Description:
Blueprint: H1 11-17, E1 18-22, E2 35-38, H2 41-60, H3 66-73, H4 77-105, H5 107-126, H6 134-149, H7 154-162, H8 168-193, H9 200-228, H10 239-251, H11 254-262, H12 265-286, H13 288-295, H14 300-328, H15 331-352, H16 358-372, H17 375-387, H18 392-421, H19 423-441, H20 449-478
Antiparallel strand pairs: 1-2
Helix pairs in contact: 2-5, 2-6, 2-8, 2-9, 3-4, 4-5, 4-6, 4-18, 5-6, 5-9, 7-8, 8-14, 8-17, 12-17, 12-18, 12-19, 13-14, 14-16, 14-17, 15-16, 15-17, 15-19, 17-18, 18-19
Amino acid sequence: MKCDQNTNETGPELRKDGKIQAGTVNGDCGSALPTRLYRRRWVIVLLFSTYSLSNAYQWIQYGIISNIIMRFYDVDGFAVDWLSMIYMLAYIPFIFPVTWLLEKRGLRFTALVANALNCAGTWIKVASARPDLFWVTMLGQSACALAQVFILGIPSNLASVWFGSDEVSTACSIGVFGNQLGIAIGFLVPPILVPNVSDVDELAHHIRFMFYISAGVATFIFVLVVIVFQERPEIPPTQSQAQARISRSSDYSYMSSIWRLLRNKAFMLLVITYGLNVGCFYAISTLLNRTIIKHYPGEEVNAGRIGLTIVIAGMAGSLICGLWLDKTKTYKQTTLVVYILSLVGMLVYTFTLNLGRLWAVFVTAGSLGFFMTGYLPLGFEFAVELTFPESEGTSSGLLNCSAQIFGIIFTIGQGKLIDKWGTLAGNVFLCVFLLIGTIMTGFIKSDLQRQKANQQAEVQPVSKMAADLQEDILKERKL
């Protein structure tokens, strides 16, 4: 039996640029929709990772040298903490309109807006390298924080729009990878570029130089996005994505989608547990300089290196978890195991921090980062599975909104505990909430809707072929 592809391209041309996963459309050959993988999908996800990197770097560049920033601008530690927490605060009110824009205008529009805001913020900060211009640096950081709202929930959406079902978790991990790498560079570079010198004019020179580098990189990336970034492939990559295009274009209501997500009990449990885990990571990252300096005075550079270790280990964890999910599809089990190991890593980090051995802090922080940061793409992909065919951007937005709320609460709470009772109390505070999150994760019902959609679409053409074959046999017997 033979059937033609319902596309405008021939077989050999398709093989040069990608591969066809299915080639029929509601016709004589079954009900499968045409799907195709394009090689340019890797360029798109890497470009997204690059501009996510630039924005994530801005988030932590003040916090990791907080003692120097406090002295330069003559502000207290809480004010410097807000340079990090503004990222979390900006996300909460703006995520819903931004998600609506993503649905209405698409990936390219959100990418352009994100890079325009990020680029503007970096240049505003260039003008703020004076001790009396803390408000200007806060303004620039606010622009970068607003840009983050257009970035943070994109990985799962971009992965679903561009990648095949057997690589979507890996692609999501690569998208998250860029954000993590930006945080890693934010931990490493500022302590090197801005040494703790006593002369204010020299310090202003170092800070301005750091801002110029950020602005130059952000501008270059903005130009690349304008030239290269594409909305979506002409032909969808999977059956589930093909079906989603039809269902969303025919009768899609953003508010109805939000309401359905809020009534999805398994997803709402995941929203809370994701927020608890990632909120703890935000608090640890924001207060890392203060935590390390309390036990190891004068070790600003090593505080940055410890932060780098956390994130680099987390990047490895993210990629390994993404590959594992693509291979096994064990979303609930993997998420629960990683959550438990995040709690164990946090406990070990908490009770070894004050031993006076900096190498031990590197080891324990690395193990904590491997699991805690490695959890990020797991949450995104598990959410998409639980909520299909709802928009990936909407489900990711709700996850990140929860993370920002808990991030603000945990950063303020842990900061106050550290100031009053020390780092042990602050870290135990986070351990308690990780334990709560672990228990709640165990109650999430694993109902993988996206996997079901892909499996049903694959079975339908085979069933149709079997029926046709049986019909042909019956006809031959009659003859």
